Amino acid sequence: MAEIRLEQLAHSYHGTPSKPADYALRQMDHVWEQGGAYALLGPSGCGKSTLLNIISGLLVPSEGRVLYDGKSVNDLSPQQRNIAQVFQFPVVYDTMTVFDNLAFPLRNQGHSRDRIHQRVREVAEALEIEPLLSRKAHNLTADEKQKVSMGRGLVRDDVAAILFDEPLTVIDPQLKWRLRRKLKEIHQRFNVTMVYVTHDQLEASTFADKIAVMYQGQIVQFGTPRELFENPQHTFVGYFIGSPGMNLLDIVLGSAGIELEGRALPVEESIVAQLRRGGEGRLQLGIRPEFVQLVASEASTLHGQVDLVQDQGTFKIVDVRLDTPSASVIKARLGEEQLVPEGRVGLAFPAAWQRFYRDDRLVEIVP
Amino acid sequence: MKPYNNKAWWLVLPVFVLVAFSAIIPMMTVVNYSVQDIFDPSTRYFVGTEWYREILADPRLHDSLVRQFIYSFCVLAIEVPLGIIVALSMPRRGLGVPVSLILLSLPLLVPWNVVGTIWQIIGREDIGLYGWILNSLGLDYNYASNPRDAWTTVLVMDVWHWTSLVALLCYSGLRSIPDVYYQAARIDRASSWAVFRYIQLPKLKNVLLIAVMLRFMDSFMIYTEPFVLTGGGPGTATTFLSQTLTQMALGQFDLGRAAAFSLIYFLIILLVTWVFYTAMTHNDNKG
Asked: For a tag on chain B, would you pick the N or C end, based on fewer CB atoms within 10 A?
C-alpha cells in the first residue's frame, strides 16, 4: 500500500529528445493517493501505457522521479517495488493449472501453503473462476485466461498498487460490466491503490473515483467524472468526455463584445472584460450538447437549420447547421420527451454552462 | 441419381504421379527385392519372409542397432540441451544478432563428406588441433586405433556439425515469445529458472519437437561423416546401421537381405519418431 508520486517525470524513447514531440510523456507532477481507485483515460498512443510501465518499473523514465511513500524507486525493479500489473492481453503460464497460476506470485514470495490456499480461494471466488482451478491454463477461453491474469494481480494483498492496462479489451460486453463491478468491490474490500488504464470513458467512470485524462503525453485534467463533465480544463477533455463531446466554437473579441463569425453573442459584460484582460491567443467557446437550447428563431442572434436527428433511444442528438459562412455544426442533446423543431431554429447557450478556452486551456471566470 | 463431377481428380493427379515416383515405386522395388532371391531378371525365386528371419537373427545387425541407439541417444542428450543453452545466450538485438546467426549457420553449410575430412585432420595428433591438444594434455588419443577415441570423435563431430540447427530453431522459438510474458514474470517475481521452466520451455515445445525429430532421424541414418573419418573402424566400433546396410547391399551384393534390412530400418525410424511425437504432444489434449 503506498502513495505514488511522480516528480517532474518525463519519458522519451529517443536517445536525445530535442523538441516536445520527441517525448512520449511530457514533464508532469502527479500524486496517486494510497487506497484510491483511479483511471487513466486517453486515446491510443497518448502515453498511458508508457506511464503505467514507468510506475510499475518495467520502464525507466528518462527524466524525473517516481516516489512510493516519499521514497524514490527509480532504481528499483518491479520485483523490488512489489507492484502488481495486469496486461491488455491475457498472460497465463500454459503448463500450470489455474490454481498454480494464481498461487505463482505467492509461491515466489515464499508464503505458507495455508496462506496460499486461502488467498487463491478468495480471489477465485471473487472472480468466479473456482470451477476452473484444477484445469490446465492453456485450454481456457480468452476471457477465462484474462480472469486468471487479473487473479494473479489481485492475489497478493501486500502490493504497493495494482495497475491495469486495458484489462477488459478481450472480454465480451456483458462480462465486462460484471468484472468492472467486481474490481470495484475488490478495491473497497482490500483498500489497495488501483490505477486503471482505458480509452473508454464509461469504463473509467464506473471504475474510478478520480480520472486522469491524458492527451499528447500529458495529464490534462485530474478530477471526478462529474468535474470532467462540468468543467473540462482543456478542450480535449471537453471533446473526449461526453457523448457526443462538447461543442467548441471559435470566437473573437470584437468591439461589440464576443463575436462568432461576425455575429454578436449575448455574453455578460463582466465575462467579456475578464477575457479581454487575458491577452492573446485562440479563443473558443465550449458548450455541452446537453445544455444547448433550441429556441424560436426570433429569440436568438444565432440561427441554424436542423440538419440531422439521431434517435438514441433515451435521448436525441440534433445537428444544427449554423447559417454562418463556415456552416459549422452544433450538436444539441434533447430528452426523449422533448419535441424536435424543424427548419430554422434559434440557439441559446445558458450562461452557467458557457466555458471559455484560450489556446485550449480553460479561462477561469470569476462571477 | 445425383450426377457427380469427378473432374477435380485431374487436379490431384500431378501429386499422385510425383509421390509415386518419389516414394511408392522405389519403396515397392525394395519390398519386391525383400521377398525374392534374384540372380538376374529371368532367374528369381520367391522366398517369403526368409530374408527377414535371417536378418533379424543376424548378430551384425544387433550390434550396429545397439551402437546406433546409443549414438542417437548421446546426440540428442548433448545437442538438445546445448542448443537451448546456446539459443538462450544469443543476443536479442544489435549487431550481435546477424553475427551470431552467420557463425551458427556456418557448420550447417559444410557438406557432410567435407565435415568428415575436416575432422580427420583436426583429430590428427601431429597437425590436428583437437588431437594435438588432447595428447598434450597427457591423454593417449588416437581415433584411428582406439575404439573409444573413434567413437567420441564421431560424436564430437556431430555435435559440432548439428548443434547449430537446434540452437537456431530454439532461437526462433524464443524470439516469438511476446515481451509481455517476461514483463508479467517480473511482476510475479519469478526467478530466472521459473521464467525458463514456465515460459520459455513451454513456448519452445513445438520447435523442440521438430529439433528432436530431425536430429533423431538424421543421427539414426548417419553415414557419410563416420565413413570418411573412420571408415567404420577401428574394427566395427563406429559402423552404424546405414554403413552395415551399404556393406551388405553394395559390398556383398546381397540385395534380398539388404532390402529386408532397409524396410526394418525404415520401420524402426518411423516407430521411434512416432513415439517421440506422441510423448511430446499427448499433454496438449488433457484438460
From this structure: N
